[in-house]
Specification:
The chain is an alpha/beta fold. 55% of the residues lie in helices and 11% in strands. A hairpin with a 5-residue loop joins β7 (293-299) and β8.
C-alpha cells in the first residue's frame, strides 16, 4: 500500500515539474514572437540568426529561476492567489531585466511598449495556468488522511493551522504520546501520513525509524537542536563523520556583505519614499497634534537595545489604555490616519532610518520589546538565540508566520534563518516580502487568539474523553 503511495507521490512531482516547464515554455515563445515582431532588425542584427534562440533561452532560464525562488510552481501547496502573486512578481522582475538587456544589446533606449504588452499577456497566461493547475491538483490529489502524534497539549494548535487548508490536509486522528510506542505503531499504519508533533526525542526517534522502515510519509516538527544541527558543517575526522556547530551567528565577512546590502538598498529607497514619509508625518501632526513618531525600545544583536521608529498610528499614550498585548483589527485606539498608514505599511517606513543608522538590518529576526525578551526568556531559555544576529525589518517569521505565531515557533523560524543564512537567502526573503505585503494571510490579528484557544480546549477535552472511554474497555486501543 505504501509503495503505491510512493509511486503516486513520485508521479505527482513529475507532473508538477512538467506543468511548470510547459508554462514558462509558452511564456518564452510569446517573448520570442514579441521580440521578433516588436523590434527592428537594425537594432539587433547579430541576434536574428541563431542568436534569437539564445535570447529566448535566457528569458526561459530567468523565469525558471525566479519562479522557483518565489515558489511560483507550488500549485495546490500555496493558495491560488499567493501562487498567482508569486508568478506576477516574477514576471515583473523578469521583464524589467529583459527590457534593459535589450537596451544594452541595441546600445540605445528601445521602446518599452512591446515588453509591457508581453507582461500583460504573460500575466494572463499565469492566471489561466495557476487556476487550471490548482484545479487539477485538487482533482487528482485528495487530502491526506493523517494521524498526528502529540507530545503535549499545546501541540494540537498545529491541527488548526493545517485545517485552514482542507484541500491539502485532513488530520483524522489525534494520538497522545501516552498511548505508548506499540499502540502508536499499530494505529498509524492505517493512515496516509503521520505528523510527529513536539514528541520527546527518544520515542520520536523510534517512531521515525518505524515510519521510515515501513515507507510511511512523515512530517516532524523540529526541536531547536535539530535546526542548529541542520546548519552545522560536515567534516570527517579520520574515519568518523562529525558535525561542527560554531554557534557564532554570522562571520565578519557575512556581516560586512549584509551591511553593504542594507545601505545599497535602503538609501535609494529612503530617498524615493521621502515624499510619502513627509505627507504621512504632516497628516499625523494635523490630526491630533501629537508626536509624529512612535518610539519603542527593542533588543537586537548581543541583546543590545535601540529605539525602533514607526509613524504613530494610535492615540497618544495608547500603551497605557486598552489591550496591552497588541492591536486588534477594530482597536478604537487607532487613529483615522493610523488605519491608512497601517493598511499601506507606511507606518514601517521610518525603520529605513534604523537600518541606515545600523540599529537593525533589512532581514533578520524581528526585534522584540525588552519586556517580551524577559518574559519569553523565562519560559524558553533559548529565546535569546535570536539575538545572534541583528534584528530585521523582515524575516522568516514575518514571511512564514502570523501575528499570533507562538514565541517558540517564532524562535524556530528565526533559528532556521540564522543557521542557513546566505546572501541569496536574504535577497529571496526581501522579494518574498513583497508578496506577503500584498496578501492578507499573514495579517491575522490578536483578536483571533481567544477563538483559537477555545477551539484548542474543545478538541483536547474531546480527545481525553475518547481516551478515557478506550481505557475503560479492556483491550481497547491495543
Amino acid at each position: 500500500m505504501h509503495n503505491k503511495r510512493k509511486q503516486i507521490s513520485g508521479a505527482k512531482s513529475l507532473i508538477r515539474s512538467l506543468e511548470g516547464f510547459l508554462e514558462i515554455f509558452i511564456m518564452s515563445i510569446l517573448y520570442y514572437f514579441t521580440w521578433r515582431r516588436g523590434y527592428e532588425f537594425n537594432d539587433f542584427p547579430a541576434y536574428f540568426g541563431n542568436g534569437k534562440y539564445v535570447l529566448a533561452g535566457v528569458y526561459f532560464l530567468l523565469l525558471l529561476v525566479l519562479f522557483f525562488a518565489f515558489d511560483g510552481f507550488k500549485f495546490g501547496y500555496l493558495r491560488r492567489f499567493d501562487a498567482l502573486l508569486s508568478q506576477w512578481i516574477s514576471l515583473i522582475i523578469a521583464n524589467f531585466i529583459t527590457y534593459w538587456q535589450l537596451c544594452l544589446i541595441a546600445n540605445k533606449i528601445v521602446s518599452a511598449v512591446p515588453m509591457l504588452m508581453l507582461a500583460v499577456v504573460n500575466a494572463a497566461v499565469a492566471l489561466v495556468c495557476v487556476v487550471f493547475y490548482t484545479w487539477l491538483y485538487h482533482q487528482i490529489y485528495v487530502p491526506k488522511n493523517m494521524a498526528m502524534i502529540l507530545g503535549n497539549d499545546d501541540a494540537v494548535t498545529l491541527k488548526f493551522k493545517m485545517e485552514t487548508r482542507p484541500d491539502k490536509y485532513h488530520v483524522g486522528k489525534l494520538i497522545p504520546i501516552e498511548d505508548g510506542f506499540e499502540s502508536i505503531c499499530q494505529q498509524i499504519v492505517n493512515y496516509d501520513a503521520v505528523i510527529i508533533n513536539d514528541v520527546p526525542a527518544q520515542i520520536r526517534n523510534d517512531i521515525l525509524k518505524f515510519c521510515y522502515r515501513n515507507h510511511i510519509r512523515t512530517y516532524v516538527t523540529p526541536k531547536l537542536t535539530d535546526i542548529i544541527v541542520r546548519g552545522a558543517t560536515s567534516i570527517t575526522l579520520f574515519d568518523t563523520p562529525l558535525l561542527l556547530v560554531k554557534g557564532n551567528g554570522l562571520t565578519p565577512s557575512q556581516q560586512l556583505v549584509k551591511r553593504i546590502m542594507d545601505l545599497v538598498i535602503c538609501v535609494p529607497v529612503a530617498i524615493i519614499a521621502l515624499p510619502f514619509m513627509l505627507l504621512a508625518a504632516l497628516a499625523i501632526k494635523l490630526e491630533d497634534g501629537g508626536p509624529v513618531f512612535f518610539k519603542q525600545t527593542r533588543a537586537t544583536l548581543g541583546n543590545n537595545t535601540f529605539e525602533i521608529l514607526k509613524f504613530r498610528s494610535m492615540v497618544v499614550d495608547a500603551d497605557k489604555i486598552g489591550n496591552q498585548a497588541g492591536a486588534t483589527s477594530n482597536d478604537p485606539r487607532i487613529t483615522k490616519v493610523g488605519r491608512i498608514i497601517r493598511a499601506t505599511r507606511i507606518d514601517e517606513l521610518p525603520q529605513l532610518l534604523n537600518i541606515i543608522r545600523g540599529d537593525m538590518s533589512i532581514v533578520g529576526p524581528r526585534p522584540e520589546r525588552v519586556e517580551h525578551m524577559e518574559k519569553y526568556g523565562a519560559e524558553i531559555s533559548e529565546f535569546d538565540f535570536r539575538t545572534k544576529v541583528k534584528g530585521g525589518l523582515t524575516g522568516f517569521a514575518q514571511i512564514y508566520g502570523k501575528y499570533n505565531t507562538s514565541p517558540y515557533d517564532k524562535l524556530r523560524l528565526d533559528l532556521m534563518y540564522i543557521e542557513n543564512y546566505s546572501f541569496v537567502l536574504d535577497i529571496k526573503l526581501i522579494l518574498m516580502t513583497i508578496r506577503i505585503m500584498l496578501s492578507k494571510d499573514s495579517t491575522e490579528g490578536f483578536d483571533k487568539v481567544e477563538e483559537a484557544n477555545r477551539m484548542k480546549e474543545e478538541v483536547l477535552h474531546q480527545m481525553h474523553e475518547e481516551r478515557e472511554k478506550e481505557e475503560a474497555v479492556p483491550g481497547a486501543g491495543k
